[in-house]
Design brief:
single chain, mainly beta, Archaeosine Trna-guanine Transglycosylase, Chain: A, domain 4, six-stranded mixed β-sheet
C-alpha cells in the first residue's frame, strides 16, 4: 500500500509527536504521522519535552533531524552511530534512505 493510500495515524491529544531515546541523539522517531509545523518531542532518558518545527511530512516510525546535519556526518540514535548523511539535512527534515546511508550497509554506495 502506498503512503498516500493508508489511513493517517495520530496519537491522542497531548501525546508527543516524536520520541528521542537519549539526550545527544541526532534524530527522533515519529510515534504518529506528523505534518509540517510545530511538534512535541519527548526525551525518554530525561523525560524532557521540547518543541521542534517540522519542515516536511514524517510518517509513523520514521526519523526526523533534531539538528542540522552536514553531508557525510554520523547520525546518532540510542547513543550509537546508525549511519551517515548522504547530503546535508536541516533540522526538522525527514531522515530516511534518500538522505541517510545506514551503518548496517556502510560499504554500500
Amino acid at each position: 500500500m502506498e503512503e498516500r493510500d493508508r489511513e493517517r495515524i495520530e496519537a491522542g491529544e497531548g501525546a508527543p509527536h516524536f520520541l528521542v531515546h537519549n539526550e545527544g541523539d541526532g534524530v527522533a522517531v515519529a510515534v504518529q504521522d506528523v505534518e509540517p509545523g510545530p511538534a512535541r518531542v519527548r526525551y525518554l532518558d530525561s523525560g524532557r519535552d521540547a518543541e521542534l518545527e517540522v519542515r516536511e511530512h514524517v510518517p509513523l516510525g520514521h526519523k526526523v533531524a533534531l539538528m542540522d546535519l552536514g553531508a557525510g556526518v554520523e547520525v546518532i540514535e540510542y547513543r550509537v552511530p546508525i549511519g551517515r548523511t548522504r547530503v546535508p539535512v536541516e533540522k526538522g527534515r525527514w531522515v530516511h534512505v534518500h538522505n541517510l546511508r545506514s551503518a548496517r550497509w556502510g560499504r554500500s554506495r
